[in-house]
Structure formats: C-alpha cells, structure tokens
C-alpha cells in the first residue's frame, strides 16, 4: 500500500519555497538525519543485533563521509537487513515533480523536460510527495542481469516517434536511475557479470549514465550500497578492481560474537508457535555456535544466524505437534499416546506440580487461540500460543539435527556423517548449558528416582502430566525451577521441561543411563 502524504504539506512550488524548504542531496540528507539521531540518543539502526561496537560505527563513518559502501561477509549475517535499515535515516517525505520517473526535486530538476516544465510553470508548478519507503531500490545480482535492467535501454517506440538517440526522453530507465534521490542496493554483487559491473563505474564516480554509447549528463543523486560474500567462497565471480576502488568503504560483517548476542538474535527473529523455555533457547544458541566452530564444517560457508532461528521455530513446532496429538488421543476415552501408556487428561491438573497454581485458560476449548500474556520466556514469542501448555523440551531439539542439516555445508571428508556430527554437537551444547545453569545444585533427588531398577520415561508423545506423575515430588525441583527462571508457579509443561532437562543433563554427565525404546520413548535409569 502506497503511503498517503499528510494534507498540510505544500502543494505547489511557491508554497514549498515559502515554507523555507531547501534542496539537499541524498548523502547530505542521510548525514544530517544521522547526526540528529546521534544528538537525541534515538535508536539509529533498530533490529540490528550484535553490531553496536563493530560494524555500525564503520557504517556511520561511511554515511557521515558520504561514501558508497560494500558490506562483505558470509551468509546470514544480516547484510540485507542492515542495508534496508538505512531507509529510516531518510526524510519521511520529500517533494518530487509529479510524473518524473527520476523522482526529480522541484528545486533541482535534472532532465531537459523537467527544467522546461519548472521554467514554464514557475511557482504554480504542482508538486507531489514521496515517502521514504518508496525511495529504496534493490536488485539481487544474477548472471542474467543486463545493463538494461540496471541502467536502461533505448525505447524503440519513442525512437519511432521521432526522438533522437541522445535525447533522455528516448530512454527507458533501469532500476538505478529510477531510484534517483534514494538508496539503491545490489545484493551478491560478485554474481554480476564483469561487463555489467563496468556499467556501474560511471554511476559511482561521474554520477551519470551511458546507454548504447550515448552519454546522458544526468547527475544521479543516490547512495549505492552492495553486499557480497567472500570471493574465496562463492567461486561464481568477483568484484572487478575498478569497481571496488569506487566504493568509499568496505565494511566487514560477522556472526554474533558471544552467546548473549546469539540469544538476543533468536528472541528477536524467531516466530514461535509454542513456548520455548530459556534453557532450551540457550541449548540451541550454543548448538549453533558449536556448529559454526566445528572443524567438520566448511568455515568459508559459515553457519547462518537463520540456523539458530529455524532451530527454535522447529523445536516450538515439535511442542505444538505433541500438544495436538495428545489432545486428539485424550479425546478417545481410555486411549493413550503410545501403546501401553496411561490415558492423558485433556487439561492437566496444576496439582501435578507441587506448589503450582492453576494454569490460566485451562478451560479453553481445544484449538482456541488463548488470550492473555503469550509468553513467560523473556518476551521471545510474538503472539498467543496455539495450544494450552505446549512447552518445548530439550528432547525436542533432536529433530533439528535432521531437519536443518541442509543449512550446513560440511567438509568433503564428512560425507555420510552429518547427522552424527550434529547430534554430538547438540549433546555437547546441552551438557554445557546444564553445567552453566545448574552447577552446584544437589540433584541427588533425581538420581534417587531410578534406584532399584526404576526408570523414568519421557519422549515426543509423553505428556507433561504423565512425566510429572512418574517423578512425583522431587527434592531439589524447586531450586531447579528457580535456577531456570520458571518462577514459583510453573505450568505443568514448564515443570516437565525442567525435569527432562535435568534428566538429560545427568545422563550427559554420566550419572544416569539412557535408552530409547522401539516406540520412540526415552527411558532414563541407573547406570549399569
């Protein structure tokens, strides 16, 4: 939807002059607005995580210097997101000559036709207003991109009407000129054929364009930004040296530098359909970082930040699937999720968790979208959950190793071992999170559960109520819940997630045994 300008904006060139409006180039506009936001302390790049002390200062220096720039980094480092955020530094509305394909400013027309129009109409010239969202152009570089796509080409119909080849009115302008007085981005610049890159040389230096050998003195006013992967990885092309020389700044991007930034990124980007407790998110963040640093993974490819985001969404989906299947099972009197399992009540009694209060919304109809606070997990979720007490557990993360292996490029010698490698890294991440979260706690109450041959069963289709019924009142559970940030009144799903995390952590620290049954259940017991 095209934004509608406010009614109080000037409607003619005379009114624009009377309002004291002055012409500024795009780079002057970006510089002035950036400085204004710096002085006011307002956020300058909302939604950009982990770049405050590294990438953003370099971007700001490039903008203040009036430099075109290229962002260089591996996939999934937010390069395009950062480029698109620059639009917020443009004026919200800017005046244009109506009908101008080059978005010409009424005080600074560039084409002969517009200059004639301004001279003939004078202060009575009607003006239009262009929203900053319409001043951004973007092209994904592909091998079939042509000079005509970016710069323009001769329009044979206009030529047949009697115009000459040197007349700007004969040209059908491409994406770059049509973004005049705005920001134009070229994603994956090395993928452009070298002869097409040559066509960009004049745009970056002389600020004019050439079409089929005819030089059109149209002083383009724009900021040109490009993104690229490292040349040694793509192997599809390179940025030609003269073009690199014309970019005023080359800014290197990177993946989140620490665990907290990784978690912050997941919280911001993941669109979760069920609650994912903080300790499970931490496991996934550590897992993504471990995959990124693994010697079995091609370092030139990198592991995108989208990997951790997709992992969180997959784990949430596993929890929602469990809730849906168990709800269907409980609708059949006496039925169970897994043959031999006890019936699962439709709405777990809060008394299953010692000291827990009733679960808000427990009487909601199946499938109803619940109202109220959607999340107790550091505001990571964006909307109401789709099922009552659908809470992800650490065991749900196992599905990630097969679902997301296509996002990782392994070294050639690891072919056929991809899931094995990811499974090992996931277990390592779980063990590290267990030590970081629960170190120093007395967990002997959990090991006591499996004395004398007893076992505790959990799994993809084991309900929270069934798991909590097996463990009963466990000494030390309250302290575990407190360490995991669940609070004094956890829901059954939150308590079950905490219990499963402890059981898995004790297994990984060699204090419990573990076995997976033919029916898919995970059985924790004493070590042989």
Number of strand elements:
14
In percent terms, what proportion of residues is strand?
5-15%
Q: What's the main sheet like? A: 5 strands, parallel
Q: Helicity range of the residues?
A: 25-40%
Distance between the termini: 66 Å
Helix count?
21
Spans with pLDDT under 50 lasting ≥5 residues?
332-378
- Secondary-structure content class: alpha/beta
> What would you report as the Rg, rounded to the nearest angstrom?
30 Å
Shape: elongated
Main-sheet strand order equals 4-7-10-1-11
Mean pLDDT: 85
Task: Give a topology summary.
Elements: H1 13-18, H2 26-40, H3 55-65, E1 69-72, H4 79-85, E2 93-96, H5 112-121, E3 128-131, E4 136-140, H6 147-150, E5 152-154, H7 156-160, E6 171-173, H8 175-178, E7 182-187, H9 194-198, H10 201-204, E8 209-211, E9 214-216, E10 222-228, H11 231-234, H12 241-246, E11 249-252, H13 259-269, H14 278-293, H15 305-330, H16 398-403, H17 418-438, H18 444-448, E12 456-459, H19 464-471, H20 477-483, H21 492-508, E13 513-516, E14 521-525
Parallel strand pairs: 1-10, 1-11, 4-7, 7-10
Antiparallel strand pairs: 2-3, 5-6, 8-9, 12-14, 13-14
């Amino acid at each position: 939807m095209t934004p509608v300008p406010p009614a109080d904006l000037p409607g003619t060139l005379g009114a624009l002059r009377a309002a004291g409006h002055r012409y500024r180039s795009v780079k002057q506009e970006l510089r002035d607005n950036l400085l204004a936001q710096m002085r006011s302390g307002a956020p300058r790049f909302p939604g950009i995580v982990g770049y405050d002390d590294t990438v953003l200062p370099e971007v700001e220096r490039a903008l203040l210097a009036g430099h075109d720039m290229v962002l260089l980094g591996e996939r999934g480092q937010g390069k395009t997101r950062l480029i698109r955020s620059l639009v917020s530094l443009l004026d919200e509305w800017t005046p244009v000559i109506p009908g101008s394909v080059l978005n010409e400013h009424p005080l600074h027309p560039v084409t002969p036709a517009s200059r004639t129009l301004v001279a003939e109409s004078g202060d009575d010239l009607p003006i239009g207003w262009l929203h900053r969202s319409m001043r951004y152009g973007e092209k994904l570089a592909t091998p079939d991109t042509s000079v005509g796509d970016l710069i323009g080409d001769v329009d044979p119909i206009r030529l047949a009407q009697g115009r000459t080849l040197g007349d700007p009115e004969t040209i059908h302008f491409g994406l770059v000129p049509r973004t005049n007085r705005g920001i134009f981005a070229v994603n994956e610049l090395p993928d452009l054929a070298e002869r097409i890159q040559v066509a960009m040389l004049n745009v970056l230096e002389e600020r004019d364009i050439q079409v089929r050998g005819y030089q059109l003195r149209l002083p383009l006013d724009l900021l040109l930004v490009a993104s690229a992967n490292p040349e040694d990885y793509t192997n599809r092309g390179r940025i030609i040296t003269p073009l690199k020389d014309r970019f005023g700044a080359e800014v290197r991007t990177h993946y989140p530098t620490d665990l907290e930034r990784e978690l912050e990124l997941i919280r911001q980007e993941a669109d979760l359909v069920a609650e994912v407790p903080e300790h499970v998110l931490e496991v996934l963040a550590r897992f993504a970082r471990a995959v990124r640093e693994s010697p079995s993974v091609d370092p030139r490819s990198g592991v995108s930040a989208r990997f951790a985001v997709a992992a969180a969404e997959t784990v949430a989906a596993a929890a929602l699937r469990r809730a849906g299947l168990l709800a269907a099972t409980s609708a059949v009197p006496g039925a169970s999720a897994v043959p031999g399992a006890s019936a699962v009540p439709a709405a777990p009694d809060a008394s299953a968790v010692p000291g827990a209060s009733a679960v808000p919304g427990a009487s909601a109809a199946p499938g109803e979208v619940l109202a109220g606070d959607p999340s107790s997990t550091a505001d990571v979720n964006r909307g109401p959950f789709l099922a009552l007490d659908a809470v992800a557990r650490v065991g749900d993360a196992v599905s990630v190793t097969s679902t997301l292996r296509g996002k990782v490029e392994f070294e050639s010698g690891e072919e056929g071992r991809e899931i094995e490698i990811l499974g090992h890294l996931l277990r390592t991440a779980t063990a590290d999170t267990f030590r970081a979260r629960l170190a120093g706690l007395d967990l002997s109450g959990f090991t006591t559960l499996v004395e004398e041959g007893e076992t505790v069963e959990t799994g993809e289709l084991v309900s929270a109520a069934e798991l909590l019924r097996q463990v009963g009142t466990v000494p030390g559970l309250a302290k575990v819940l407190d360490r995991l940030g669940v609070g004094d009144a956890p829901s059954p799903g939150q308590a079950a997630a905490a219990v499963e995390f402890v059981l898995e952590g004790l297994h990984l620290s060699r204090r419990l045994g573990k076995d997976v049954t033919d029916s898919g259940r995970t059985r924790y017991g004493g070590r042989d």
